[in-house]
Structures are given as structure tokens and as C-alpha cells.
Write a structure and sequence with these properties.
The chain has 300 residues and is α/β, with parallel strands linked by helices. The chain contains eleven helices and eight strands. Helix 2 crosses helix 5 and helix 3 packs antiparallel against helix 4. It starts with 18 loop residues before the first helix and ends in a 6-residue tail after the last helix.
Length: 300
Amino acid sequence: MPRLSVRGRRATQPAGETRAHVAGAASAAAAEVASPPAVEPDLTAAAFFDVDNTMMMGASLFWFARGLAARKYFSSRDLTRFVWQQAKFRIAGNESAEDMLTIRENALAFVAGREVSEIQQAGEEIYDELMADRIWSGTRALAQQHLDAGQRVWLVTATPVELASIIAQRLGLTGALGTVSEIVDGRYTGRLVGELMHGPAKAEAVLALADREGLDLSRCTAYSDSANDLPMLSLAGTAVAVNPDTELRAAARARGWTIRDFRTGRKAAKIGVPTVAAAALSGGLVGGTIALRRRNKLPW
């Protein structure tokens, strides 16, 4: 994994810069860049994909937390509390400053003090166990079209950049822009660099990466399921709403954006229900399952 200049010391925020700007710059700096594709490269065009409910069914960070809980990194009660915080973040829409501060401070607290290499190894295993089968084949095919055209493809997500990079590597994509955590002496401090990779921070990350890589954003394409990503979608010359929530569907229709919905039947009927809200409901079930497993009440 690439190393940021902030690693090995405490991250600081220059005067006058917003947390979104700091988070965007940090995420762009941490993004891995793969070797040029075998086809003739189109160096000024690229594609940016959100992860949760766009590239993957459900919330990647929830599955990651569930995998860590199964490995006894924290208790089932901690998992339920963590999932509820994420659900509140997604449901509120216009979060209060207090809510944002709480989420920012606690987002990666469950790995504070752990070695980066240890969490990366766990992430590899958890992806194979819980995430690989949840990739939307339709969205994966869209990403492959860009790769086949010689364009680079990045994931842009609020999930930790280490986990986002694992997902990108497994899918054969160029790299990932994700939430960057502070690392000192090879261990997580439990604090974030700047802000969660959410809303305006995603747009800042894309702008920083485009500047670094010489991308022409008018030739780029952005994909997301959520109206929270309108800042990022609006940057690209082409925007596509994938499995959109109600607000994004309306915005896409108003702006003439393409809408792709890979959900069918019962799943499609849940348009507008935040993915992490469903995870919050299942969090209690997961916690209960872990507790029963510890008491040998379940056969698996």
C-alpha cells in the first residue's frame, strides 16, 4: 500500500482547508494506480464507481465489521452500536455537526492500535467470505466496458481505503479512493485524515485525482446509487444512476442521466431504503447469532 506523508506522525489540517478538502486530497494521494491496461490506453478518460449498493449489494463496511466481529475483534454489542451509527448517518440526510463529529471520531475506532498489515490480511479474508458473492454482475460489466476501452476505473467510497483497495484489486480495477485513517508506526490511531469520504469529500477526491493523473472530467463517467453523491456525479461529463434511491432517481430523470437498475422483484421495491438502514436491522440478528454461537446454540 502507498504511504502518505502524514503516516508516522499525527495528521494536521492546514488553516483554511475544509475537512472535505483534506479528506479528498488524502484519499487521492493514497489511491493505488495499476499498470496501464493491455489495450491502447485512453489516458484522459476514466470511470468512478461508488461501492455500497452500486458495485456491491449492501454496505461493504458492515460486512467488514461483521467479519471482524466473527474474529472477536470486538463484541456483538459493539457491532450493533457501530451499525446503528452508520444507519443514522445514512438516514438523516442532513446530519447535525454533533452527529458528524461522533461518526468521524468513531468510524475506525474498532481497529485503533491494530497493525495495518493485520487488518489488511483480515480484509482479504473477509472479502472472500462475505463480499465476493455480493458484487452486482451488471455493474461489474459496466466497469469492464471502461477497462476494455482502455480507461482507468476507480472505486470512490466512504469505506476505509485499505478495504476499498482490496475490492478494487479483486475486481481487476485501477484503484480506489476511500476514507483515509491516520497511521503511526504501522498502526491505526483510530482517527481519520480530514473527513469521511462522503458527499463533497468524494468530489474533492475525484478532483484531486483528475489533476494528478491528467484526466479530462468532461470525458469521465461517474456511477452511484445515492443522492449523497450528486457532487461527484455532477463533476463527470456522464453520470449514471445505478440502483438509485428515490431522490437520485428523480434528479437523474430531471437531468437526463441514464438509470440502470439491477435489482429485481422484492429488491427493486425497496428503492429509497438506505442500505445501511437494512444493515442496522440485521445488526441485532448478527449480534444475537454471534452470541448464540459462543454458547454453542447454533450448529455453524
